[in-house]
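Protocol step 4 of 5: obtain the predicted structure for the target chain.
Materials: sequence only (see below). No template structures provided, no constraints applied. The aim of this step is simply to have a reference model before the mutagenesis design in step 5. Sequence pasted as it appears in the construct record:
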Amino acid sequence: MSDWTGGYVAEIGYTHGYYAELNPLRIKLAFLNAGYAFPETGTACELGFGQGVSTNVHAAASVTRWHGTDFNPSQAGFAQEMAEASGADVKLYDQAFDEFCGRADLPDFDFIGLHGIWSWISDANRQVIVDFIRRKLKVGGVVYISYNTQPGWAAMAPLRNLLTEHAQLMAAPGEGIVPRIDASLDFADKVMKSGALYGRINPHVVTRLGQLKEQNRQYLAHEYFNRDWAPMSFSDLRGWLEEAKLTYACSANFLDHVDVLNLTAEQRQLLGEVPDRMFRETVRDFMVNSQFRKDYWVRGARQLNMVQRIEALRGLRFAMVMPRDQVKLKVKGILGEADMSEAIYKPILDCFAGYRVLTFAELEESVRAAGVRFEALMQALTILISQSVLQPAQHEAAIEAALPMTRRLNRMLCEQARYSDAVVAVASPVIGGAINLNRIDKLLLMGTAKGANEPESLARFVISNLALGGSRIISNGKPVDTPEAEFAEALRLTNGFNETMLPLLKSLRIEC
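Step 4 output (structure tokens):
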């Protein structure tokens, strides 16, 4: 009998996370930061979409046609349920990579995304994917890929091998993955506490082991306990992707574009003396001890001159996705936490009063009087996007076209909040992607859509819907102990939602 899992953990589902890097709209600023032309995206594909949250959000929140596959039928089933709810142009399958990549009915793609699968699949599957990219990615098209990398995983690899070997050899017959994970972590902890020299030489690994014990078991199962697990250096990945005629474009992690937050002056000077751009990435990984990379690769990189770059930048649109009173003028890079200059950031944030959607050109004109010049504005926008304060925004025609689909998808996600907090994302046609919204706020959004507009009726709506799933309002980490206290807490949360979150959600056209 064949093993349809291919050695990948299938008995426990992947988490329901949303990953903004898979939003093709974000390519534009990242590419312009690097000085490259960017493609417009009409067709896109995600390989290994997990629960399908990102794929469905991006399909519903844009006019891009999406395809994708995930080998796990339960995950694909949930993803297809979301697709049916939104009515978006998205086709999702539960096929293995070789079966999906061999389909004759797939279009050529402007964008192909692989979030967190490259490090956990076999070389045979990697070859299938590279061949698929070579055949199906358009000239000028972009691949997003994230993966575990060296040298950050070098010291951790032996511990991972210890954990997985224990789970394979020491578990009781028929024991599920979660008990095996718990037993492996406990055993590894005992090994370290026995005075193992490996732990004494690598104390940070012992610290990370302690952190693993506190993490979500779904995440750990897929991160550490698959049969295939291969952190890969940038140069090795380059060797694979060059077969598909891909060139490295830039990091999809916006904070990586701001060297001053991540590299010392000496390191920046040394990197500047390395003439080969690809080798520079390898050297940089050593400088920051890179453990996980998120990168854009392009088929046919086209360098822009300064005039082209500036003109393209000035046409980009941006929206605020965080309430102003929650914005902290602090940013944490590899070198530690740094202050964000109030003289630069306050004028920029002031421009978004009332949650206006603004072009780069409009921002540039508005902050000129405050002394904020072009390069400072560009760096500030890059940092604000990295902090999820701002996001790139679509044009009005795309927003109007996507609105009915996002409304239907959000209705489904808000209905689920009555009994589950698994999915925290809600879709916005303004940004072509999602923001995170907690379970209570989803119920408040749904209650508002159903006409419960008075705070008292909204509070009761939340309480009654939580009760359907056997849940109650939580205060200070514990369920409130009386109906009166629960109503008072629900009313407090309702008033906070109406004052802070509802205006933001309306500006982002997040409706249900």
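Step 4 remarks: The radius of gyration is 24 Å. Confidence is low (pLDDT under 50) at residues 4-8.
Proceed to step 5.
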